[in-house]
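We treat protein structure as text, and this decision shapes the records that our systems exchange. Because each token names a local backbone shape, the row as a whole describes the fold. For reference, a complete record is included directly beneath this paragraph.
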Amino acid sequence: MADLFISYSRKDLSRVRVLADALSTQGWSVWWDRQIPAGRTFDEVLAEALDGARCVVVVWSKESIDSSWVREEAEEGRRRKILIPVLIDDQHPPLGFGRIQAVELRDWNGDQTSDAFQTLVTGIASILGPPPAPGTPKQNAPAIRASVVGATKLIPNRKIIGGSLAAALLITLFALGVHRLGTAAGSSQPQSRTEPSAEPILRLNAVMADGGEPLTGGVSYEVSQAVKNVEGNRKPVVGSQAYEGPPTFHVPAGRYYVTATYGNASASTEVEVAAARLTMQTLNLRAGNLKLSSVLARDDPALASGVSYEIYEAAKDLEGNRKSVAGSPAYEGPPTFHVPAGRYYVTATYGSASASTEVVVTAAKLTIQTLPLNAGILKLSSVLATGSPPFVNGVSYEVYEAAKDTDGNRKPVAGSPAYEGPPTFPVPAGRYYVTAASNAASGEAEVAVSAGAVQQLQLRLNRAEQR
């Protein structure tokens, strides 16, 4: 495993490459290039490299502080007390990491003799010990070889034959043990061995697409036993609500089936949790975000409330129906849906007006779709006589299409009970026949409504004739 694990944002790749090369020339082995070998997964390679590293160097920048990957890796380094933070721009470390002294490399140009870089080398050396000279063996190799040579001098004529071979081996092992004990007791350098976790830990993440940044909130997770029972069900082990940040579960070592759910998108996989290790698993949702809005007419501002939406799969089944995927009530503000990547049929309904269209959602992308309703607002009121105050309540209204069918009837469009206050109807653009009725009076009129307009109509009510 590598001596150093560099945690950074891929957006800072060019700057981090210079740093990684400079640290490598000091004699330390560095893991930083996140290319994944064929046949391996990103999660297992990352967890293996992080678990085996003797020091974690986190590169804080405007990009990396928003990366959940970087925060997780830095947290693991902090937990093991092997974290060295580096600053490459004016951004402060995220909350929780500011108390650890960071090395400032904001203006560093790659000069390995600069005070800033030497400060970093000194900090790493306080954890790993002084870097080995380039091209030489590891620091502890000469001491071990010296112990072996010294032990062989105890054997007469420096010849090991027959049973003397076992004696020589025992003496060598004893000498090595004494040497290591003396080093641990007398050296001022801290020990570089990385201790494994005291208990198994499972840390879960979810991404919208391969290579994406982990979602920082809104994802719920379920951990179940991998083996199904006789009824084909898995026994739940532990779960979470929509975490603000990836959750960590303390579970016994074993095999599990994990699921991540983000809105209407989900992903599942099996994962092996090793004893006394941190196991990291990322679930690929292969999903995107679909933001819907509606307008009364093209180029109008989006409606802020009162519109309900339905999302269906675009393809119809054998009976000509579409499968429902998601929906909303009359949102206060345009809604955003998290859905699997694919093609959808969406509808918007606002009062008696509606619109539909198909839309394609791409993984890890925000798709914005606006539906023009081609509608207007019909605002009604009633008076008994011209110039008199309008009725505040007690009047019911009915709105019909103006044109009659072949039987002489008009198609109902909207209606109201006896409103407390004049009603407002969103209706498709067109011509309408409106009626108003109170206990003792009624009225009727025709009106045209234009798309994007508010049409006010005041009906004059006539008292019914007394018989």
